[in-house]
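To the wet lab folks,

You asked to see what we're planning to order before we commit. Fair enough. Below is the target structure as tokens, and below that is the sequence we designed to fit it. If anything looks off to you, flag it before the synthesis order goes out.
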């Protein structure tokens, strides 16, 4: 009983060993001479791994060229869109200038009309004082119309008062033999002077009001023109800023939003959609080296590094 069990335990390892020898002989032949030519072939010719490496480099170069062509095409499209934005901006700025010019013209026309109306008013107002001045002079001359007659052998001598109360003597000829005087009642010269002063005061008041109104119209004109200038500048700034925002959206802002790092093929994302690899070029800037937490760029022999979400270098905008 014990001997049969021992025989079975001995046969089992022998069967396993024979099976292993058969498997080695038919599958690999590692202990025979069949592998010698293959070993020579490996030594004399390139391996499949080398060919695959060369093919992979070519594919990578082709992919890089395709990406570069795609970026150049996108850059050309962005340049055309930028030119369109700038042309639209110029048209809008010109339209604003025309509107501002029309506003200024209306202000100047309104100012000119008001000045002409004011000039007409002061002319008519000052002329309205002329009848009062003539009337005062007429009253004066009427009150002063008194003479002194002197009878003489050869002629007559006439004496009258001037507006200031002084006597004027005009002697025609001969010597006087008889005198007759008639005196003016009241003080007509003073009355005329008072009326003349009132007329001058009224004229000065009119001129003062005219100058004040003229100055007010000038300030009003200047204020309206300054408001037009502010409106024009505000509109222009809005259009220019809007165009700058549109242009900025067309190109990469240089902001590194993410880094996909690997030992053999790293990449980054600029902005929201532009993927770059080491050696790629955009806007004259070369992606020199990609690290785990930063990216090294180079442009015109100037190097700098940027981390994720770090403020881009000014080189991106030059």
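Sequence we intend to order:
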């Amino acid at each position: 009983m014990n001997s049969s069990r021992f025989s079975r335990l001995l046969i089992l390892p022998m069967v396993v060993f024979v099976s292993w020898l058969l498997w080695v002989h038919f599958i690999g032949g590692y202990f025979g001479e069949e592998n010698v030519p293959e070993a020579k072939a490996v030594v004399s010719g390139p391996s499949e791994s080398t060919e695959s490496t060369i093919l992979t480099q070519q594919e990578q170069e082709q992919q890089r060229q395709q990406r570069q062509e795609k970026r150049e095409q996108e850059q050309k499209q962005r340049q055309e869109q930028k030119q369109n934005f700038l042309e639209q901006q110029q048209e809008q700025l010109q339209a604003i200038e025309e509107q501002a010019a029309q506003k200024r013209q209306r202000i100047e026309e309104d100012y000119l009309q008001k000045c002409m109306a004011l000039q007409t008013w002061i002319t008519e107002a000052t002329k309205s004082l002329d009848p009062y001045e003539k009337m005062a002079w007429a009253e004066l001359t009427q009150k002063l119309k008194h003479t002194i007659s002197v009878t003489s052998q050869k002629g007559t001598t006439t004496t009258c008062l001037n507006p200031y109360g002084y006597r004027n003597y005009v002697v025609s000829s001969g010597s006087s033999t008889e005198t007759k005087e008639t005196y003016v009642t009241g003080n007509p010269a003073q009355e005329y002077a008072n009326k003349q002063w009132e007329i001058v005061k009224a004229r000065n008041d009119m001129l003062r009001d005219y100058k004040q109104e003229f100055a007010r119209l000038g300030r009003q004109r200047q204020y309206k023109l300054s408001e037009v200038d502010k409106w024009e500048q505000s509109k222009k700034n809005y259009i220019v800023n809007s165009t700058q925002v549109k242009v900025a959206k067309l190109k990469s802002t240089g902001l590194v939003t993410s880094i996909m790092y690997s030992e053999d093929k790293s990449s980054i994302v600029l902005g929201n959609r532009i993927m770059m690899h080491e050696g790629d070029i955009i806007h004259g800037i070369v992606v020199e080296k990609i690290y785990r937490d930063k990216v090294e760029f180079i442009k015109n022999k100037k190097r700098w590094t940027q981390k994720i979400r770090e403020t881009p270098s000014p080189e991106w905008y030059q």
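Structural context that might help your review: The CA atoms of residues 164 and 189 lie 6 Å apart. The first strand starts at residue 148 and ends at 152.

Thanks,
Computational group
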